[in-house]
Design goal:
- With 265 residues, this protein is α/β, with parallel strands linked by helices.
- The protein has a single domain, classed as Rossmann fold (3-Layer(aba) Sandwich), CATH 3.40.50.150.
- It contains 9 helices and 8 strands.
- Strands 1, 2, 3, 4, 5, 6, 7 and 8 form an 8-stranded mixed β-sheet that branches.
- α3 runs parallel beside α4 (87-94).
- The termini are far apart.
- This is SAM-dependent methyltransferase.
- It comes from Streptomyces oryzae.
Length: 265
């Protein structure tokens, strides 16, 4: 069966969200995703570490924003498949009245989001919009139905900006969304970088499989997304170095993935 009965879900073409799910130990993937995922691990054994560490970074960043920075609205763009400790669970765990809007355009993600991304508190709101991150204006229009754009919003791009075909387009997407949110809002993002030749090769080989290409950037190119915003301490760093918990000290793996949290003044 090459196509899941009119749902738009292709099981014959690998998909980055499902491969990422496989690397993180999830079950929401097809044989083609596992095959490509294993081939990618042969090229870059660190990619599964990047997948796991990226979720740890998300947890720490969202917890900081909800608990310390007072964020109550989150716009998570390019959500991917639900795994453990998703944005709404972390945010509502720290601040029960948090509102979270997830954005993705993958039919499998949509199906799982409807089933799994449900409120963890009575006071909060958890919503999902089916939209392509290449069309930030549509994302903003849809998100206005749930979020209050006169109050601060945390905008999240967690390991997805490589799907923008050019660096200029990547910056356009980020800036269009950030221009729409008010002062006091935050930008959270991370991405893999060209520091690792294995990662670069992995992305090149993945593009040959028929999956949506992913274009790794330099550290400076990723950091440029934060231009004009005030980086929160410790700044733009490897994601394993962003406010690690005490239990993580001394055992943090070195991976070519950088990110940060910044505030719009």
């Amino acid at each position: 069966m090459s196509n899941s009965q009119g749902s738009g879900i292709r099981s014959d073409i690998p998909h980055s969200a499902r491969i990422w799910n496989y690397w993180m130990g999830g079950k929401d993937n097809y044989e083609v995703d596992r095959t490509v995922g294993e081939a990618c691990l042969e090229i870059d054994p660190d990619i599964s570490t990047m997948a796991v560490q990226s979720r740890q970074f998300l947890i720490r960043a969202v917890r900081y924003l909800a608990h310390e920075a007072g964020s109550r609205q989150f716009l998570d763009i390019g959500t991917g498949l639900p795994t453990m400790q998703n944005t709404h669970e972390v945010a509502q765990g720290a601040a029960p009245d948090s509102k979270i809007v997830y954005v993705d355009n993958d039919p499998l993600v949509l199906a799982h989001a409807r089933a799994l991304l449900v409120n963890t508190t009575d006071e909060g709101v958890t919503s999902y919009i089916n939209s392509d991150f290449h069309d930030p204006e549509q994302i903003i229009a849809d998100a206005r139905n749930v979020l209050n754009f006169t109050q601060p919003i945390t905008v999240m791009f967690m390991g997805v900006l490589g799907h923008a075909s050019t660096h200029e387009d990547m910056l356009r997407i980020v800036r269009t969304v950030m221009d729409a949110v008010p002062s006091g809002s935050h930008l959270v993002l991370w991405d893999g970088t060209t520091d690792s030749q294995d990662y670069v090769t992995l992305c090149e080989e993945y593009a040959k499989t028929g999956g949506a290409p992913y274009y790794p950037r330099t550290q400076d190119q990723v950091r440029a997304a934060f231009d004009g915003f005030e980086l929160v301490d410790p700044g733009f760093v490897p994601i394993t170095e962003w406010r690690p918990q005490t239990s993580e000290l001394g055992e943090r793996p070195k991976i070519a993935a950088y990110g940060g949290v910044a505030r719009k003044s």
